[in-house]
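May I ask for a protein sequence together with how it folds?
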Amino acid sequence: MSIEVNNESTYDIDEAALQRLATYCLDAMRVHPDAEIAIVLVDEAAMEQLHVQWMGEPGPTDVLSFPMDELRPGNDDAITPAGVLGDVVLCPQVAEVQAEGAGHSTMDELLYLTAHGILHLLGFDHAEPEEEKEMFSLQRDLIIGYTMSEKQRDSK
């Protein structure tokens, strides 16, 4: 998979962890190994500009997703076709505030937001209660699976 991480923010981020999470999520969702995705970290001003331009909402947000080829998850019988999944844009400053409120690290929040953004790229949404239940359950499962894989990696 082609997973590009571009940190355009002033935050020092574990870019390799974002890459490993994205790889884990895409593998779990049966996305073609030749799929492409970009994860971009931006400061509040840049995120606010994107948020206003694309969502018509004031202020910075935590994560925005920009799908390209409208790829959908594969299944046990068939993976998705190759293509450009799209971009996930993260704002570490907003993530930091959310992380403090949730009682975990900014990096944990960025991992959570990355999984959330990837699911949006794959067509998941949370506008309706049933969609929200499905998406957040899947997101939780992906984070748990990734965390377990990281613990195994670290114990080697």
Q: What stands out?
A: The two ends are 24 Å apart (CA to CA). The chain has five helices and four strands.
